[in-house]
Here is the input.
Amino acid sequence: MSVSEEQSELPEQMRVRREKLDRLRAEGVDPYPVTFPRTATNAEIREKYAELEPGAATGDHVGVVGRVMLSRVGGKLCFATIRDGSGDLQIMLSLDRLGEESLAAWKRDVDLGDHVGIEGEVITSRRGELSIMADSWQITSKCLRPLPEKHAGLSDPEARVRLRYVDLIVNDEARRMAHIRSATVRAVRDFWHEEGYLEVETPMLQPIHGGASARPFKTQINAYGGMELYLRIAIELYLKRLVVGGIEKVFEMNRNFRNEGADATHNPEFTMLEAYGTYLDYNGMADLTQRMYQRAVVAALGTSVVVHGEHEVDLGLTQWPRITLYGSVSEALGEEITTETSLEQLRKYADQREIHWDPKWGPGKLVQEFFEELIEHTLIQPTFVMDYPLETSPLTRQHRDNPLLTEKWDLIGFGTELGTAYSELVDPVEQRRRLTEQSLLAAGGDAEAMQLDEDFLQALEYAMPPTGGMGAGIDRMIMAFTGKNIRETILFPLVRPN
Here is the structure.
C-alpha cells in the first residue's frame, strides 16, 4: 500500500494533518526542528510581569514555546493559548507585526495540539491578559492526532489510563497528580535522610520470595542455566541483612511486585518504602511514621488538611490515635475478645454477624477478619491499630506482655491500610521455626506462604540487634492525601491490552 493509500484510510482529521505535514516538508519547512531559542517558561513570564496594566507594552522581547491548546483566528489578528510544562500563556499574532504571508501560514498550517515557538514582545491586551505579541513563529512539532474535545476531555476513565499522555495534555488534575507524587516522594526521601537513615538499593530479582505473604511473579535467568527467580514481593529480608552488617539505620523506596488482583487500592506493581532502625521498637516507628506523613502532606499539598468527600481531616494533629486490635474488635462486637477466647466462640460471633470464615483459620486470623469487616472502613482519621495475633505475623517479635500477640501495628486511615511496623523478630532460632512453618504451608500449595530462606537465617545467626521496622506504600500515601484511587496516583498502572 502506498503512502497516499495509507493516508486515505485515516480518519478525516488525521488525514488533513498528514497532508499538511507532507506539504510543509515539500515547501522546505522542517516540522520537527531540533530546538528553538526559548528564553523563559510561561510561568516565569507570568511571575515577572504579573503587575502590568491593561494595554501595556514592555519593549521586552522573549522566546517562548508550548502546545497550542486554544486558537481564535481573525482577519488581521489571531489569538492562541500555548501550554508548556509550567502553565498557559496567551499569544497574539497580528498582520502588522508578522506580515501577510506569515499570518496566512499560521492560519493554514497550525492545528490544535501542535507545538510552536514564538518570539515577540511581552504586552497585555486591552482586557489585561498577559500576552506575547509575536514577531515570528515556528512549528516545533506537528501533532498528527486531534486532541480530545476541550470540555469533555477523556471522559472514559479507562481511556485516561490507557492514554495517560493524552490525559496529561488535556487534564489539569492529571498534571497536578504527577506533581503531588513527585513532591511526596521527595519529602519522604528527605525525611529519612534527615533522620540519619542510609538509602540503599536491594535486589528486585530474588532466588527466594519472602518478607510478606503474597503470590510472586516468576521468571528465569538464561545466563544461570534457566535458574528460577522471583520479582520481589517485599524489601524486608535484604534490609535486615544490612542491619546485621552494621548499617544501623537503613531505608529503601522502590518497586515491589505481587501477582494478585488489581482494584481501586491495588496494582500488581507498586512503590514501597521500608525503613529499619536499631534499638527502636514499634512505638518508636509509629512516632517516625506520623512525622513522615505530616512532612509529606505539607510538601505535596501545601497544607496538612486533606479532604475525602465529606470528610476533612487534619493530619497535623500532635498525636494520632492508638488502639489495640482486640480492644477495637471487642467494642465492635459488644463482647470482650481476648487471645483466650475460643475458636468455637469466635465462629459463633462470626455466624451471628454473617461474617464469612474459613475452617482453616485459627482464632487470630478470625479476629483479624472481624476487624477488617467491622472496623477498618470506619477509621477515617489515621489510627495506629496495635498488637496483632502471632498467628498472622510470622516475621514479628512476640509481644513483651502476651506471647499470643506480636508487637505490630497497622496504620489505618480513610478506611484502608496506610502502613505497618514491627518490633522486629531477631531471634534466629525462633525465626527458623516460623519460616519452617511457612515453608510447609507453601509445600502444601499455599501460593502466598513464604519459602525458607537459608541465607537470611544464616545472616540472623550473626546477630541482629534489637530493631524496629516499618513499611508504607507510597501509592497509598498519595491516595490518602488526594482521595483518588490507585490508578490515578500511578502514571502508568497496568491495564489489560485492548
